[in-house]
Amino acid sequence: MGMEREPGHTLLWAELSREQTNELRKRTTYAEISELLVEYLSIEDQQSTKNEALLKFYVMNLRFAADSGFPDTKTSTLFSVLKLAHFTSMERNLPANQSQQELQNLLLIHSVEHPPYSIAVFSPVDVKSIMDFATDTYYRHYRLYRYVFTPRQLLELAVAPERVELPPSMAALAGATPQGQMESADVPCEPEPPEVVPPTEEELEQQQKEKDTEVLEDPKSEMIQQLVAKRLENIKEGLDAELQAKQTEYQERMDAAQTAGS
Known about the structure:
Layout: H1 18-25, H2 30-41, H3 49-67, H4 72-92, H5 96-109, H6 124-136, H7 142-149, H8 179-184, H9 201-216, H10 222-261
């Protein structure tokens, strides 16, 4: 489901054609938009965790484009740029800061007019707005996206070859030191154990963060599975509420226009 960009090729109309982008503009609910995306992108098994997260990610990005007043060219390009940045980050298992750099590079390629290597789709103001949007939405939940989309590294076990351990050779008794000489030798004093210093509040807080990270990175943790499901549901509810509010606003404007016309 990933996508690749060949050198010298921009992402305008790469994923969504002009007709498809225009058709998506006419849809106002999450169900309607996601239904078209499933058709346009040939998404199978919509109930899987990955595809469900992808659909919410796609709809969220299209809603931002609509709220920003982007025309079809910007909307289609933004959709492809964010999708490519996501799959590149997941396939390379990039940390958040490197993923943000990847997204910024893609946006810059589409903000400078230098065909065929780049095309000026976005203005500098657009680039800043898009980066702020991605930071507040996608990268706020970046750890969850990595959990869902990146493979987990399993413990590798290796079987050591069988071997017989032999006891070390013993020195001859003729070379041993007499007991009398050993008793008269100076016995070094054992050093005093180091003083145990209790951890500070900052160290205790850091230890707790490390424990929390271990829990979040455990693929078998029931808590992370519940957290992923809860976060996905919260994103869906937020999108539904936002779409419903927009639909109500549009209806009020239409009613006001009709009243003024009569």
